[in-house]
């Protein structure tokens, strides 16, 4: 979504919310006024309804910029809750005092004819390009590295020391300085004078502790020596630059407040985070299966259940047992969540936009980065071949013992050899990492991905029939093909073979079955998935 469109939608949402807020505040004030005009005290049921309505405003108004109103409603809701907890029914004159406080709060709202005051929203840096400046006085060296990084999706500009003013004006995300041709004595003073410098990477001559220590003291975030490997620089840049990937983080938002949930959705979208909103709690399980989120934002007060109950319902399914849950806690729920820590984190309402993004990024990246096995392939982060073999023996024994279906898939990137030959191994490594990332993000938490050989991966899918596994891998294949997976305008696809491990006589027999089906998929023209029905 473009920033202008997002801003327009946020403003339209704010207008819609304020219109609703006027109605809600007036309804509460009318109810309190009616109760205060009686001769007898208000009932507990009436007070509970007023308390819940006030808390709803306290939870949401701050997210739309009305902090004072949020605070006022929160204080009044707290007072009413104390009466209810103490079994006290306030006298009419006491309610009249609440009426005055609510009237003061209502005056903080803008008039409906003037709903467009400046509203502060989070300004996010545009990092879509991944801009890298190469500084050095050897044109051939700069050009070779620039071509390699450009093939990996970065926008690279080359500069010599006499061009540093142009470099600064370009505002890159990172600068890689070649100290073989530009000694530190020539560039350090200029760099230190830069008020807000980008990330610094250094290409040096010395491969020792002292050289690395000196680089760190000059603010370097990366240090490289010959022979220069563009894939290593790529991995460093990916940690430093928030480049959008084909697979953004996915967040499931469970909140019955339509406008507030949409506000969270738009804020996360502005940070490059995808999200799916569920306003009806009963639809959550279907959303989990269809969307497969990396994290769930769950309101603690839902119409059918509490947030903790919702989290427990989700985690009854093994596929979501490790799903991080961040509670959107309201009122007294904030204290309860702080004491019990029943979720991975909690955010007190009204939720600050920056805190929302920071919390989601922290926990969602952690769950993507964490794995159930220690043995990980250095390039892709998936299981090594040895760890994969151990896992296959365990899953085979489990499938034989329980009788539940377990499927295997062997996936191989098409023409990866030609890719390496024409564009270098850095390009091949880039595509291999992208496919590994795509697989781990699209599969279930209980599924496993292992590096089989070169550009090939083996996927283990417990509690999954071969037919369902073939449909899942086919869906992933189509998604991978449709996204911008190109190297120098060359499209990247994969082929796959699928079979049931539970049907095989041994692990070796199961691997042989998927290997044969992958081979036939390659012979049939590549870019396809073959399974049981494709003999």
UniProtKB/TrEMBL annotation:
Its EC number is 2.7.7.65. It comes from Chromohalobacter moromii. The modification 4-aspartylphosphate is found at residues 178, 299. Residues 404-534 form the GGDEF domain. Residues 131-241, 250-364 form the Response regulatory domain. NCBIfam families: GGDEF. Coiled coil: none annotated. It holds the Pfam family GGDEF. GO terms for molecular function: diguanylate cyclase activity. InterPro entries: CheY-like_superfamily, Diguanylate_Cyclase, GGDEF_dom, Nucleotide_cyclase, Rev_trsase/Diguanyl_cyclase, Sig_transdc_resp-reg_receiver. The lineage of its organism: Bacteria, Pseudomonadati, Pseudomonadota, Gammaproteobacteria, Oceanospirillales. GO terms for cellular component: plasma membrane. It catalyses: 2 GTP = 3',3'-c-di-GMP + 2 diphosphate. It comes from the Bacteria. Keywords: Nucleotidyltransferase, Phosphoprotein, Transferase. This is diguanylate cyclase. GO terms for biological process: cell adhesion involved in single-species biofilm formation; negative regulation of bacterial-type flagellum-dependent cell motility; phosphorelay signal transduction system. Transmembrane segments: none annotated.
